[in-house]
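Input set for joint prediction.
Command: fold jointly, output tokens.
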Amino acid sequence: MKIADLTCAELAQRLKTPGILWRIGPFLVHLRTLAPDFAIQFHLLYGEYPLEPEPCPDIIDFHIELVRDTGLRRWWRPKVFFTMDGPSPFSPFPLDHALPLFEWGFNYCIAARANQYLLLHTAVVAKGDQALLLPGLPGSGKSTLCAALILKGGWRLLSDEFALLRPTTGEIFPLPRTIALKNDSIAAIRAFDANVILGPEFPKTRKGTVAHMQPPLESVQAANTTAWPTWVVCPQFRQGATAQLELIPKDHGFLRLSANAFNYELQGARGFQAIGRITRTCTIYDLRFGELGEAVNLLTDLIKT
Amino acid sequence: MDPRFALTNANTIQKWAISPGMHWLWEQFDETFFLFNPLSNETHILNILTVKILQILEKKSVTLTELLTHLDIKTNEKDAILPYQRILHELDRLGLIAPFES
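tokens >
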């Protein structure tokens, strides 16, 4: 059964109690919330994802609950808390920002707990089993480029945020969640593909206005198909720049990748060896770009060489 | 001058060896060497000279004078020897090598 097999009202009821068991990539998530509108947004963006029947014999990785505040302030300024296995790790959001709170909170869950993987802070797309990693700092255009590659480049989405890399083998597990577009990127992606499905815009978040892009069906269906790091491209958006790739020396590449991993030191020798393997096997580039279509063509041509 | 780097008799007869229990890992990319120290979970970036020194110390404990012989450095000039003394102390400070107690 998938989420879209439920109506929005049925999903909202399930989310209230007993919650849903949602399988996404390698994770099984138990999710509960009373937040209004969340069910409609979740239904739109994650409708194609499988729901696990309860009771489920598998181990649940994260128990997530979006909890409404109970103080007097809730009457004029309602808030919602993100909780993971009980405690709330950060400050509440306005109640109508439950979806971005959930997305950021889920990132936190993975970064804090999924240490069976080497966690690289990067978008990942793939052609077949060959993965292209797009590590970048906030504002580099990583998410926008990732969205453009899967919308028109024929790439499969593995993740907009994390490479979940098994340190012992080097394969990357997909986690095809929504792509969080921010500020000018929202209009840029709408202009790039008029058929893109985006959730509502959430203004005045900590990162400005955010809208979430629905992952393509093919990527969701291939959520259990791992891929192997083949290219690393560090994007940097520059207004008006011509798309250009520049090879990064391997020693610089090793430094960039090790600095990019959330849990490199925690992984110890396994992390060192995994970063070494990626550096040896991948070609690593800097990419300057100013126009999405040009960058997509350049990267899609890259694999033909 | 920092007394640790002075070419005193004590410093030149001090024997050095890799830290007990050390099983480090290497990666080499171009001219740069990366060493992972599993005892500290730290990664160090090293040049070829430092790597050669560690490779010598991996095989046997040596004094500074013996180290220079292994490196085929034939000089008694203080200025030429001091950098090697300094490297040994830096490697000691990082926990990669330690004074050898026979």
